[in-house]
Amino acid sequence: MPIRKKKHTDEVQMNFPQTVRNSSNPFGILDGYVPLTDPRTKLYYALREAVPVIDAAIFKLVRLIGSFELICSDKTAQQSLNRFADTVPVNGSRYGINSFISAYFEQLLTCGTSIGEMITDPSGRLAALYNAPLENVELKRGEDGFSTEVYLSGVGGLQKVRYPDLILLSLLNPDPGSVKGNSLLKGLPFISSVLMKIINTVGLNWERVGNVRFAVTYKPQNDSVDRAYAKERAMQMAREWGEAMQPGAGVRDFVTVGDVSIKVIGADNQILDSEVPVRQLLEQIVAKTGLPPFMLGLQWSSTERMSSQQADVLTSELEYYRGILSPVILKIGNMFLRSNGLNGDLEVRWNDITLQDQVELGRARLYNAQAEALENKKAEERNVKA
Questions:
Q1: Contact 140/28 with Cβ under 8 angstroms?
Q2: Which of 48, 61, 172, 236 places its Cα 20 to 30 Å from the Cα of 322?
Q3: CA nearest neighbour of 94 among 111, 106, 110
């Protein structure tokens, strides 16, 4: 059957939610808009830039989510759908619906809220996909107390988008009643600030102690000649010592007379061991991402590898993210079919997640096959004896 757009009279009417506060304040509309860019959002992007492990975790999750295909029940529409999925322009510089979903998912993990837009040509056909920056958009609870309305912020104030059906919106772990989601990095700013203090302190200590500095001390003798020329001799020693220590000067001897002592500044002090506290902080960060440490380049154990339990947990995390993205993909595919007059029901088919070692999986299948063969052989022997 052809897919027909429902008329307004066919839409399901819902009552206003009882648990939503209905403010009688005439100026309550000023408190109804929720900007999607706040100091926390900017802080999350700063964390990704300052802590490489966090940035690597975001990109790793984007790649682990895998690719997908749109399957249409109408075989005649499948070819057009495949061509669209591979060649649709994205943000004016990339192509393919997979590219759009990757940027969409990255924004969702970092900000907790992701917004995209389907762009149509003058004839109404779906022509391109666009990842919207959050600083241009604000959200508001609809008049029915249930839906979410998207507004564009600009010089002239807030304006509601003209075609809300073309907007794509996803939230990650939203709070009850909230119109915006929570970032995957929520809770990490404090841990990351402590980590950055330790790393910054280590750098300063190595700059002070690692770059060796010397203390040259000249003690004049008790005779009148040494006391009279102490200043001149000290300045001469400083000049000769400075020339000897110049980069590229090579190995040079420093010859002097009198009571002169040379010591390394800070040689008696030790730099604090940062391995234990840094690892404790990194463990908190890695636990928030849900990824095994070795996937982020943290070799905390010489025999560390992904076990079947870790693979199952990570697979469930990725399946949860796929459940958030699948409705967005279906909305894009259905929009393409309707705008081009095509029929059929759509299904999002994700590629299988293979996280375990293929060698171990092959060995396990071999052992299972050998065990099954032995059982069949024993069963045949019992039947022959019987």
A1: no
A2: 48
A3: 106
16: its two tokens: 């206003």
Cβ-contact 98, 68 below 8 angstroms: yes
**Would you state the torsion angle of the CA atoms of residues 287, 291, 292, 298, taken in this order, to the nearest 10 degrees?**
-80
CB atoms within 10 A of CB 180: 22
pLDDT tens for 84-119 read: 999 999 998 899 999 999 999 999 999 999 999 999
- The full 3-state SS of the chain, as one line of letters, equals CCCCCCCHHHCCCCCCCCCCCCCCCCCHHHHCEEECCCHHHHHHHHHHHHCHHHHHHHHHHHHHCCCEEEEECCHHHHHHHHHHHHHCEECCCEECHHHHHHHHHHHHHHHCEEEEEEEECCCCCEEEEEECCHHHEEEEECCCCCCEEEEEEECCEEEECCCHHHEEEEECCCCCCCCCCCCCCCCHHHHHHHHHHHHHHHHHHHHHHHCCEEEEEEECCCCHHHHHCHHHHHHHHHHHHHHHCCCCCCCCCCCCCCEEEEEEECCCCCCCCCHHHHHHHHHHHHHHHCCCHHHHCCCCCCCCCCCHHHHHHHHHHHHHHHHHHHHHHHHHHHHHHHHCCCCCCEEEEECCCCCCCHHHHHHHHHHHHHHHHHHHHHHHHHHHHC
pLDDT in tens, 43-80: 899 999 989 999 999 999 999 998 999 999 988 899 99
- Per residue in 134-180, pLDDT (tens digit) is 888 888 888 877 888 888 877 667 888 889 999 999 999 998 888 88
